Amino acid sequence: MLNHDAAPVRAAPGLASGDARPAAGGLINRTTLLCLLVAVLEGVDLQAAGVAAPKLAPALRLTPTELGWFFSAGTVGLFLGALVGGRLADRYGRKAVLVVSVALFGLFTAGTALSPDFTTLFLMRLATGLGLGGTLPNLVALAAENSPPGRSGGAVSLMYGGMPLGGAIVSLIAVFAGMGGGFDSWRTIFYAAGGAPLLVLPVLIWALPESHAFRAAAAVGEGSRPSVLTILFGGGRALETVLLWLAFFATLMVLYLLLSWLPLLMTDRGFGKPQAALIQVMLNISGAIACVVTGPLLDGPRRFGYAITVFVGLAVFLVLLAVMPANLTVALAVGMGAGVTVLTTQATLYAAAPACYPIAIRGTGVGGAVAAGRLGSVVGPLLGGGLVQAGLSASNLLLSLVPLVAVGGLLAVLLIHRQRRRQA
């Protein structure tokens, strides 16, 4: 059996030994609901830049290169924020770092609306990315650690469902902001996407509980602080860390390639732009619903079969997207299936991540996994662009994703199998 504890952690009074979480309470509790709300807001902010870009670029006279740097700034911030936010959470607590991260991405998203030039725009998006990156590892840790014993996978999946829902919401914000009208409508997107987190901030400060498991570990005392390399690769954790990182990288490549290129791929298949946009909205909404409904299947012995099912299902729906006729009803049904499977593969990995690391170092471990996934989210759209530029058809591009899904699925299943053996 692997030794996953850097130091023994005794249960605090009133907490179950070995779990450090309350024994009572349902899956849908105050922590989960507040984390779900923050995940929705993060989903809005993550996709706000892409939604606003068609009006933002001409309004600030951005060149294609500058627009690319604007998108890249957010991604770089996400990567760094996940690493730093997870590390700080192990020192100062999940709640404190989450509150600061939400304040950062809310403030700087709203500030993006005031940007008069490219330089300011770039810096605002970089700072926004830092806040967004620091948010997700702490949402995962809080949802997992404040869930009832044996229900952490369902809690994390429920929380994660908020992110695609936020992506769908920001598209609706764009419609009401009048994206078909004047140039300044893009500012409304950022005001709304940044103002909402700032309004929610007092609620988080007042109502969000700290991780019970983190408080229990802190009450015992931390001892020495291991280095990041020791946390990730020491104590028998190296193989699980590598499996988790590679699975995140491969599956997020597929997810972000679809999010970035699906409308263009659908127009290439013969659909109009409004129809292609509708297919993508349905992909987000169906995925959000699936994460909420199927989350409980990620706990207990069922999660092994669940992981196999969703990865095989994703490969099937990618093939169907590639070969389906240009019929809107069929496309909506297939798009919903693709949304359900591609987003539940992500939920599967986020649910597995906390179990890879003991409580005292979980923030750093989960933050590293989120950062690895963010690298995949950068490579995915670039890969799609390169394949399109090389002349690959929409159908062949979608089919080319199937091997990536197979690799990500195999790694995820191996990780879950290893966790089952360790916990047996």
Structure in a nutshell:
The protein contains 16 helices and no strands. With 424 residues, it is mainly α.
Task: Report on this structure.
With 424 residues, the chain is mostly helical. 77% of the residues lie in helices and 0% in strands. The protein is built from 16 helices and no strands. The protein is globular, with a radius of gyration of 21 Å.
The CATH architecture name of the largest domain reads Up-down Bundle
* Major sheet attributes: none
Total strands: the figure is: 0
Radius of gyration from CA coordinates:
21 Å
At the fourth level of CATH, the homologous superfamily of the largest domain is MFS general substrate transporter like domains
**Number of domain units:** 2
The helix content, as a percent range, equals over 70%
Q: How far apart are the first and last residues' alpha carbons, in Å?
A: 9 Å
The CATH topology of the largest domain is given as: Growth Hormone, Chain: A
- The first-level CATH class name of the largest domain: Mainly Alpha
Element-by-element helix/strand order: HHHHHHHHHHHHHHHH
The proportion of residues in beta strands is under 5%
Q: What is the 3D form?
A: globular
Number of helices: 16
Which stretches are poorly predicted, pLDDT < 50 over at least 5 residues? 1-24
Structural class of the secondary structure composition?
mainly alpha
Q: Which whole number gives the mean pLDDT?
A: 85
